[in-house]
Amino acid sequence: MQDLPADPAADDLHYVYDNRVRYAETDAQGVVFYGEYVTYQDETSSELLRRLDHPYESFAELGVDLHVVHTDVDYRATAGFDDRLTNGIRVERLGESSVTFAWACRRREDDEVIATGHVTHVAVDDETREPTRVPESFRAAVRSFQDVPPVTE
To answer: Is residue 82 within 8 Å of residue 21, measured between CB atoms?
Structure first.
Protein backbone atom coordinates (compact mmCIF):
# COMPACT_ATOMS: atom_id res chain seq x y z
CA MET A 1 0.00 0.00 0.00
CA GLN A 2 1.10 3.56 -0.50
CA ASP A 3 2.95 5.32 2.30
CA LEU A 4 0.41 7.82 3.60
CA PRO A 5 1.05 10.26 6.42
CA ALA A 6 -0.38 9.29 9.79
CA ASP A 7 -4.00 10.28 10.20
CA PRO A 8 -4.25 12.45 13.32
CA ALA A 9 -7.95 11.63 13.63
CA ALA A 10 -7.43 7.87 13.78
CA ASP A 11 -6.57 7.84 17.49
CA ASP A 12 -9.31 10.12 18.83
CA LEU A 13 -12.26 8.41 17.22
CA HIS A 14 -15.14 6.61 18.88
CA TYR A 15 -15.07 2.98 17.74
CA VAL A 16 -18.79 2.32 17.48
CA TYR A 17 -19.25 -0.18 14.64
CA ASP A 18 -17.72 -3.66 14.26
CA ASN A 19 -18.12 -5.93 11.29
CA ARG A 20 -16.74 -9.13 9.86
CA VAL A 21 -15.82 -9.12 6.18
CA ARG A 22 -18.31 -11.21 4.24
CA TYR A 23 -17.21 -13.20 1.21
CA ALA A 24 -19.55 -11.11 -0.95
CA GLU A 25 -17.59 -7.97 0.01
CA THR A 26 -14.36 -9.29 -1.51
CA ASP A 27 -13.20 -9.06 -5.10
CA ALA A 28 -11.32 -11.40 -7.41
CA GLN A 29 -8.08 -10.48 -5.64
CA GLY A 30 -9.49 -11.81 -2.37
CA VAL A 31 -9.57 -8.44 -0.60
CA VAL A 32 -12.39 -6.12 0.38
CA PHE A 33 -13.64 -4.40 -2.78
CA TYR A 34 -12.83 -0.69 -2.46
CA GLY A 35 -16.45 0.47 -2.74
CA GLU A 36 -17.42 -1.51 0.37
CA TYR A 37 -15.54 0.95 2.55
CA VAL A 38 -18.10 3.65 1.74
CA THR A 39 -20.75 1.28 3.11
CA TYR A 40 -18.62 0.85 6.24
CA GLN A 41 -18.44 4.65 6.56
CA ASP A 42 -22.22 4.88 6.26
CA GLU A 43 -22.85 2.13 8.82
CA THR A 44 -20.42 3.81 11.22
CA SER A 45 -21.92 7.30 10.87
CA SER A 46 -25.41 5.83 11.35
CA GLU A 47 -24.27 4.14 14.56
CA LEU A 48 -22.70 7.35 15.85
CA LEU A 49 -25.98 9.19 15.22
CA ARG A 50 -27.79 6.52 17.26
CA ARG A 51 -25.30 6.88 20.10
CA LEU A 52 -25.81 10.64 20.04
CA ASP A 53 -29.55 9.94 20.39
CA HIS A 54 -30.01 11.54 16.96
CA PRO A 55 -30.73 8.73 14.49
CA TYR A 56 -31.73 9.79 10.99
CA GLU A 57 -35.39 9.64 12.01
CA SER A 58 -34.85 12.37 14.62
CA PHE A 59 -33.76 14.80 11.91
CA ALA A 60 -36.96 14.07 9.97
CA GLU A 61 -38.97 14.93 13.07
CA LEU A 62 -37.26 18.34 12.98
CA GLY A 63 -38.09 18.82 9.29
CA VAL A 64 -34.49 18.19 8.25
CA ASP A 65 -32.98 15.63 5.89
CA LEU A 66 -29.27 14.78 5.67
CA HIS A 67 -27.73 14.48 2.21
CA VAL A 68 -24.27 13.05 1.61
CA VAL A 69 -22.34 15.54 -0.52
CA HIS A 70 -18.79 14.20 -0.22
CA THR A 71 -16.92 11.09 0.73
CA ASP A 72 -13.28 10.09 0.47
CA VAL A 73 -11.31 7.03 1.44
CA ASP A 74 -7.55 6.50 1.72
CA TYR A 75 -6.63 2.83 1.48
CA ARG A 76 -3.73 1.98 3.80
CA ALA A 77 -3.75 -1.85 3.97
CA THR A 78 -5.89 -4.74 2.81
CA ALA A 79 -8.58 -6.70 4.60
CA GLY A 80 -9.89 -10.04 3.44
CA PHE A 81 -12.68 -12.52 3.94
CA ASP A 82 -13.58 -13.15 7.58
CA ASP A 83 -11.35 -10.36 8.95
CA ARG A 84 -12.92 -8.67 11.93
CA LEU A 85 -12.95 -4.90 11.55
CA THR A 86 -13.71 -2.06 13.91
CA ASN A 87 -14.75 1.35 12.64
CA GLY A 88 -14.24 4.63 14.43
CA ILE A 89 -15.70 8.03 13.78
CA ARG A 90 -16.10 11.51 15.15
CA VAL A 91 -17.62 14.77 14.01
CA GLU A 92 -14.58 16.62 12.74
CA ARG A 93 -16.30 19.78 11.54
CA LEU A 94 -19.68 21.40 12.13
CA GLY A 95 -20.51 24.06 9.58
CA GLU A 96 -23.65 26.14 9.35
CA SER A 97 -25.44 23.45 7.33
CA SER A 98 -22.82 20.71 7.07
CA VAL A 99 -21.38 17.96 9.23
CA THR A 100 -18.06 16.34 8.32
CA PHE A 101 -17.16 13.02 9.94
CA ALA A 102 -13.61 11.66 10.18
CA TRP A 103 -13.57 7.86 9.94
CA ALA A 104 -11.10 5.00 10.24
CA CYS A 105 -11.35 1.25 9.79
CA ARG A 106 -8.97 -1.03 11.70
CA ARG A 107 -8.43 -4.78 11.71
CA ARG A 108 -9.26 -5.99 15.23
CA GLU A 109 -6.64 -8.74 15.27
CA ASP A 110 -3.62 -6.44 14.93
CA ASP A 111 -5.14 -2.92 15.17
CA GLU A 112 -3.73 -2.07 11.73
CA VAL A 113 -5.40 0.91 10.08
CA ILE A 114 -6.96 -0.43 6.89
CA ALA A 115 -8.62 2.76 5.60
CA THR A 116 -9.34 6.32 6.67
CA GLY A 117 -11.59 8.96 5.22
CA HIS A 118 -14.33 11.51 5.58
CA VAL A 119 -17.99 11.82 4.81
CA THR A 120 -19.83 15.15 4.69
CA HIS A 121 -23.59 15.56 5.07
CA VAL A 122 -25.59 18.72 4.43
CA ALA A 123 -28.75 19.44 6.40
CA VAL A 124 -31.61 20.20 4.01
CA ASP A 125 -35.04 21.62 4.85
CA ASP A 126 -37.68 18.98 4.05
CA GLU A 127 -40.06 21.51 2.48
CA THR A 128 -37.79 23.89 0.57
CA ARG A 129 -35.05 21.31 -0.21
CA GLU A 130 -32.54 24.08 0.54
CA PRO A 131 -29.62 23.83 2.97
CA THR A 132 -30.58 24.69 6.52
CA ARG A 133 -28.80 25.06 9.84
CA VAL A 134 -27.71 21.83 11.54
CA PRO A 135 -30.11 21.50 14.50
CA GLU A 136 -28.84 22.88 17.80
CA SER A 137 -29.86 19.71 19.64
CA PHE A 138 -27.47 17.73 17.43
CA ARG A 139 -24.68 20.27 17.94
CA ALA A 140 -25.10 20.04 21.72
CA ALA A 141 -25.12 16.23 21.61
CA VAL A 142 -21.85 16.20 19.67
CA ARG A 143 -20.19 18.64 22.07
CA SER A 144 -21.17 16.58 25.11
CA PHE A 145 -20.24 13.20 23.55
CA GLN A 146 -16.87 13.83 21.97
CA ASP A 147 -13.56 14.15 23.74
CA VAL A 148 -12.21 16.32 20.90
CA PRO A 149 -14.63 19.10 19.93
CA PRO A 150 -15.36 19.60 16.26
CA VAL A 151 -14.13 22.62 14.37
CA THR A 152 -17.08 24.97 14.02
CA GLU A 153 -17.86 27.83 11.69
So the answer is: yes
pLDDT in tens, 65-74: 999 999 999 9
Kindly report, residue by residue over 41-55, the tens digit of the pLDDT.
999 999 999 999 999
Nearest to 113 by CA among 98, 97, 102: 102
Domain extent listing, the chain: 8-145
Q: Determine whether domain 8-145 maps to CATH 3.50.50.60.
A: no
Residue 81 buriedness (CB in 10 A; 0-12 / 13-18 / 19+): middle
Distance between CA atoms of residues 117 and 73, nearest Å = 4
Chain Cα centroid distance, residue 97: 17
pTM, entire model: 0.91
